Amino acid sequence: MHIRGDHTELVVGGRLDVRSAADARTVLHSAVDDGAGDLVLDLSELDSWDATGLGVIMGVHRRAGRCGRRLVLRDVPPQMQRLLVATRLHRILAIEGGIGLESLPRV
Q1: pLDDT per position as a tens digit, 41-94
Q2: CA atoms within 13 A on the CB side of 35
Q3: 8 A C-beta contact, residue 102 and residue 71
Q4: Whole-angstrom distance, CA of residue 96 vs CA of residue 99
Q5: 3-state secondary structure of 107
Q6: Which among 17, 36, 75, 79 is most buried, taking Cβ atoms within 10 Å?
């Protein structure tokens, strides 16, 4: 997993899972604490995430809200969009451009 960027926009790549969750949480929480305004997470380079990774995203979402910021997800890969829809988190998280429910394959 890799994260690059600053306190306003970060690109998350690789796998966001139980092995990388602690490091990701540290970097993302620092970005929330050190910035102002929206924090954009570009997920275009993200290969996969598991429940732990999704928990990291939700924790960053809550922390951003407490700091008066908003977490915005950008370029969410289709397989991760399906997970957000299945868990109904697409209704809670800000997703740039939204999720095209009609374009997602049915499982």
Answers
A1: 999 999 999 999 999 999 999 999 999 999 999 999 998 999 999 999 999 999
A2: 22
A3: no
A4: 8
A5: coil
A6: 17
